[in-house]
Structures are given as structure tokens and as C-alpha cells.
Amino acid sequence: MIAYKQKMELKPKKDWYADYADDRNQDLLEPNLTWEDKVVKILHMARCRELTEYNNKLGCSVPTRFCGFNIAFFDLDKESEGVPWKPVDKIPDPPYCWLADSVNVIAIKVAESDRDYPISVFGTVLARDQYDYRCVYLFKRGRDDPQVITSKDDTLTLMGPYRALAVSDSMYFEFHLKIKGEGDVDEDLSKGYLEHSAIRHWKQPMTRSLYSCLSTVELVYTPVPSAMEASFAVSILKGPSNSIGKVTAWTTGNEDNKIDLYKKKVADVGGRGPVRGLVAVPVDEELVLRVSIFKGCEHEHDKSFQLVIGPAIDDCLVGLEPYELRVKISWRGVMNRRGPNSWGRPNMWWRLGTDDLLLL
């Protein structure tokens, strides 16, 4: 009953595109718009119409991909490139004035499915942040490599983000997940996007639900104020173990919301290669890592190491007989965008009447 009421509260009184088109048609009447400006606005409207589909869960038509700004010429499929986040020792004082907020994604799960479990899930979940609004993949699997979800408690195995996300206002999470069917017949499981507002969404953790297609998908994440990017690699230097079994992370100011960054598959023995991870950490807190070691080939946790690491540490050794681990870590500040070249690239915006046009 509660879930039903939540869905009803989300149901708009009118289709999204109908309202949006009414507003944009009024924009076209602006007296100062050139013919070229009007063409760009119409191209944007046409792209939004292509991205709008009927949502059977909400009972109306809504956009299934990001279209918060004018996307007349924006490539929605282009991946984000590496960003020049600054080393923390290069950030001017006070750091709060220079650092953007971020988020840590804790889990993505299929909370409700119209198809009986187990289901084989493939497709993408991605983030678009304020650095460039391009694709930063959190989950990406092809049809030949689906993840089997056996219950509502299973979480998708995340592959990213590969860099810390930056948000001073809003960012977006975009979902396009399918269920692998018999033969060549697949079904849309989840399709749409969720917006995170750095101004409105500060609950720890945040749980946002996307109602679409055949499912309710839940996104669980924690907002991170004035963020540093902690990118690390953990290696076993000595000991009888085959591999690292699990790596969990949290920050000293948020011990209740732990992130499982890595879990070794029971059938995957592997070797001693480094396990890598990335966490956004508030500038006034430290990173906590808990590393569990597999015992031989029995796949049982033998020993666990817990390390508290601050931005002054970039390399550390820790021993607990008969093991020795090494953690190498890089600390960078997630910089606010101040001026056209503050993020190392030209301005990506063009002001068009009442619209912000994305140029990338």
C-alpha cells in the first residue's frame, strides 16, 4: 500500500512533453530570437520528443534520457574523459571555497520486478555530472554477459565511477536495463533517469526510486560535501592467501553507510593482483578501509585489516601475521568550476534566449 501511494504521488497531472512543448513554443515568440536561434530550439524539442516514452508505471509520457538543458547538438552517448582534479596539496586555502560536492553510490538494486526471479539483467546505468554531463558508467554489461538477480536484495555489480563525480547544483543518473529473454526476445526492465540536487538531497543515505517498464529500481547513495577523490590500490605483499576477498570503505564522519567496493567471487580464486577502488571523502574527514583476506582455496575470510587513511598518506604498509599489505593512494580535490578554464577546457555553454545550450 505504501509503495502504491508513492507511485501515485509521482504521477504528473499532464504528460511531461505536453507541458514542456507549451513552454518552448512560448519561447519561440521571443522578439529578439534570430532565425538560427529558433532552429536550434526546435531541434532540441525534436530530440526531447524522440526521448519521450509512455511510462506504464506512472501513467504518462516522460523523458527516458537526460534533457535538462538544450541538447540540440549534444552527444548523449559520448563517454566522459579524465578530469584534471588537483592534488590536495595544490588546493588554495580555504579548501571549502574551491571544492565541489560529490556523491558515493552505495548500491543499485531491482527492488520490485514484474517478472519472477531469477532474472538476467544487462544494459547500463550511468551518471552525468557537472564537469561535462557525458557518460560515467556505473554498470555496463552486454547481452552475452548479464548479471543474474535472484531476489530484491541482490545489488548490481558496479564497475565505476572511474573518477569522483562533481556536483554543485544538479547531476543525473540514467538507467537503461533489460531482461535477457529466450532466443532474441528481450524486455525493457528499467528506462529513465533520476536527478540529484546538491541543494535538496542531503539525507544520509539517499534512496531514490525509478518506476518504469517492469520494475522499481532503487539507487542508494550518500552526498559528500567539499569532496576529495581518494583513488587507491591494495596489494598482498606476503602471506599464504590466494587473494583479497572483500574491500569495504566508509569515511570517519559517516560510519553507518559502508560501501562494498569489491567482492571476490567464490569460484574465482585468482592471484595476488592489486584491488583498486575510488571513494569521495569530505575534506575534513578520513578514509576507512576494511580489507578481508581469503584463506587458501577454502574461500573463507582468514584475517581482516582496517586502516584509517588521511590525505597526508599516499603509501602505507600494514602487517598482521602472517600477512603484509600495501595500500597506495592518490588524493585529489574535486574542484568547483570557476570561470571558463577552471576545469581545463573551454566553456561548454552557449546562452540561447532563455535556454542553456550544451555545446559538447
From TrEMBL:
User: Native species of this protein?
Assistant: Urochloa decumbens
Give the domain of life.
Eukaryota
Pfam families linked to this entry: DUF6598
Which PANTHER family did the record assign? OS07G0486400 PROTEIN, OS08G0134900 PROTEIN
Its organism's taxonomic lineage begins at:
Eukaryota, Viridiplantae, Streptophyta, Embryophyta, Tracheophyta
The protein's name in its UniProt record: DUF6598 domain-containing protein
Specify the DUF6598 domain's residue ranges. Answer: 102-327
